[in-house]
Amino acid sequence: MDHAHINQGRRDLLKALGAAGLTAGLPLAPAHADDTKGAGSKRILVIVELTGANDGLNTLVPYGDDAYYGLRPRIGIRADKVRKIDDMYGFNPSLSGFEQLYKDGQMAIVHGCGYEQPSFSHFTSAAYWHTGVPNGGEPYGWLGRVADAIDPALTPNFLVNIDERQSLAVRAAHHVPVVFDNPDRFSRKGLLQSRALLDNPAAASGANASRKFLDEVAQSAREASQLVRAAWDNYRTPIDYGILPVDLPKVAAMIHAGLSSRLFYVSYRHNAFDTHVQQNEQHSRLLSYVSDGIAGFMKDMQRIGRADDVTVLVFSEFGRRAAENTSLGTDHGTANHMYVIGKQIAGGHYGDAPSLTDLDEGGNLRFTTDFRRVYATLIEDWLEYRDSKSLLYSDFAKFPIFG
Fold it and tell me: Comparing C-alpha atoms, which of 176, 155, 382, 147 is closest to residue 260?
């Protein structure tokens, strides 16, 4: 087989192992010395996905707009309950952490995020956000493409996905993400009789090239799992992350351990934010987990001296319908907020808020901001890769979030 076919076969094998959380970023082919844009930086990007479509209108409440209460007479959050940040908006009462981050100038709120011809399917819309190609068939994730672009040397453990299974967002042509859920279980399992070979495959290796390659994959996987487990076992923090802080303490442990990871992807799983029925209590509880976890994470980054190096992006695959439904919940909608959090940002509002009186024919908010504008801003102004157009397949105007 020629070199291209060999490399493709290796990629397929590595992706299969990576999807099972069994491997680290083993280089597939030597990188060229001139392909080093964005490499060597200490800047870290952490993505937090709120699966199930978070209700933006009850997250950042437009309490100054009477139309909001007209659309939500029963589940609308009263003006005297919200955590006001200006004359129009206030956070959900459970978002004390978000309120403080915003008032400290460490949060950018981007309004009206969405895309043309929106899908109301969780799976389909999530795929559009994960790939950064709405209504397209892109096979690789936007963060995977970013990893390939800014780290052509294929640094091990560069791209990390903490989840039960690999997200499409981190699927890459060359990088193989480290994928794990529980650090304590991030190891290769086997029967007692096979442990000697699993732990020391070189003992059974010969001159066979395929066997040698598989041994290298296994060795890379062992090294990644050992690093992750050691980082987690050795990490102690006095910071309170709240009750269910998604996987951010695991991210903090890896950053504190000094691993080479620069791109992290975590999510609230199982469509947690799909609040069709009796929304308010459940939604408030979920938001408290998000707010406490992210605020705790940022405090932890300050404690370990890495706060200047970390930016967090929070998003959901779409928003909810503008009006409440008969079950005191909200149905699938369109436009939503995105939140960019960090010490290096210029906090405040970005983009135009959708009108609550000029809804589309389905009763949904009309999106005002293509979500890829935020991706482009992060790629160019945070990760310092100056050609977001090549990664997003179009030119998107950036926001001055980073000054």
Answer: 155
How far apart CA 185 and CA 193 sit, in angstroms, is: 20
Q: Give the three-class secondary structure for 336.
A: strand
Q: Distance between CA atoms of 88 and 82, rounded to whole angstroms? A: 11
> Are 279 and 59 in contact, with CB atoms under 8 Å apart?
no
Counting every residue written for the chain, the total comes to 403
Three-state DSSP class for residue 45: strand
Residue with tokens 């060999």: 6
pLDDT along the chain (403 residues), means of 10: 38 46 40 43 96 98 98 98 98 98 98 97 97 96 98 96 96 94 71 61 63 66 85 96 94 97 94 96 97 98 98 98 98 98 98 98 97 98 98 98 92
Distance of CA 206 to the CA centre of its chain: 42
Nearby residues of 252 by Cβ (< 8 Å), 6 or more positions away: 235, 237, 297, 300, 301, 304
pLDDT at 217: 62
User: Do 21 and 164 touch, CB atoms closer than 8 A?
Assistant: no
- Cα–Cα distance measured from residue 186 to residue 401, given in angstroms and rounded to the nearest whole number: 37
User: Residue 15 has which token pair?
Assistant: 């992706």
Parallel/antiparallel/unpaired status of strands 310-315 and 83-84: unpaired
Distance of CA 38 to the CA centre of its chain: 19
Residue-level pLDDT at 185: 72
DSSP state of 194: G
Residues 6+ apart with CB under 8 A from 397: 373, 376
